[in-house]
Write a structure and sequence with these properties.
Helix content is about 45%, strand content about 20%. The chain has about 200 residues and is α+β, with helices and mostly antiparallel strands. It has two domains: about 130 residues, TATA-Binding Protein, CATH 3.30.310; about 60 residues, Electron transport complex subunit B, putative Fe-S cluster (3-methyladenine DNA Glycosylase II, Chain A, domain 3, Orthogonal Bundle), CATH 1.10.15. A hairpin with a 4-residue loop joins strand 3 and strand 4. Helix 2 packs across helix 3, helix 5 crosses helix 6 and helix 5 packs antiparallel against helix 8. The longest helix is centred in the middle third of the chain and has 25 residues. The radius of gyration is 19 Å and the shape is globular. It starts with a helix and ends with a helix. The mean pLDDT is about 90. The structure holds iron/sulfur cluster (SF4). The site of iron/sulfur cluster (SF4) has 15 residues, from helix 6 and helix 7.
């Protein structure tokens, strides 16, 4: 029994080590005088400089990233979330404090998932980031089988490529692609392994 407790405690400690962020402090709410919108600014309890490039790659297609400043904005659940290297986060559509806290809890989860990815695969290299910044629907289309078979629920590979890039579909939904080892390995090679994974392959 004693051993079991120790193992559980060890597992919990190990899980804890994988978390970069444990909490946040709300710095204030912002009203937009031009539109009926309320936003919140918070400070997470960790710096985000190392994790922001990983967050960008994990959210490719729905993110806009300024590499020089390491400032990242992600469209998620109908709102814009901006991450700054010093740990600040701002998000819009936070109508009440309760809604803001719910959204911030999701942000903490998102950052910790990116941190786990960083621990597992290391930081992205410059070439990966350059590729990700230039990624277009054409790059996605080029790795698809081009059969226009509709098995992904879209009429054409082109529509599917657009949806993948917008984060509305995953490459794994294209069965002719994932059923072929040759096609998937070529796609991973062409897109880059981390980008392919972010797009669902
Ligand atoms: S399932 Fe794949 S091959 Fe078929 S239309 Fe969709 S993207 Fe194209």
């Amino acid at each position: 029994m004693g051993d079991e407790v120790d193992i559980l405690a060890l597992m919990e400690r190990e899980e804890g080590r994988k978390k970069l962020v444990r909490g946040y402090k709300i710095l204030g709410f912002e009203e937009n005088p031009l539109v009926p919108c309320r936003g919140v600014v918070a400070k997470l309890d960790a710096e985000l400089g190392d994790v922001i490039p990983v967050l960008f790659l994990m959210n490719i297609g729905k993110a806009s990233y300024i590499p020089g400043e390491k400032v990242l904005t992600i469209r998620e659940g109908g709102r814009l979330i901006t991450f700054y290297p010093d740990g600040r986060v701002s998000l819009n559509r936070a109508w009440t404090e309760e809604a803001a806290r719910r959204a911030l809890d999701d942000v903490v989860k998102m950052v910790n998932e990116a941190y786990a990815e960083l621990l597992r695969y290391g930081p992205p290299d410059e070439e990966e980031l350059r590729r990700a910044l230039r990624l277009s629907w054409k790059d996605v289309l080029d790795v698809l089988p081009g059969e226009n078979c509709g098995k992904c629920g879209r009429e054409t590979c082109y529509s599917f490529a657009i949806d993948v890039l917008r984060g509305k579909a995953r490459l794994s939904e294209c069965t002719p692609l994932i059923k072929s080892w040759e096609r998937t390995s070529k796609a991973r090679e062409r897109l880059g392994h981390r980008i392919a994974r972010a797009l669902g392959l």
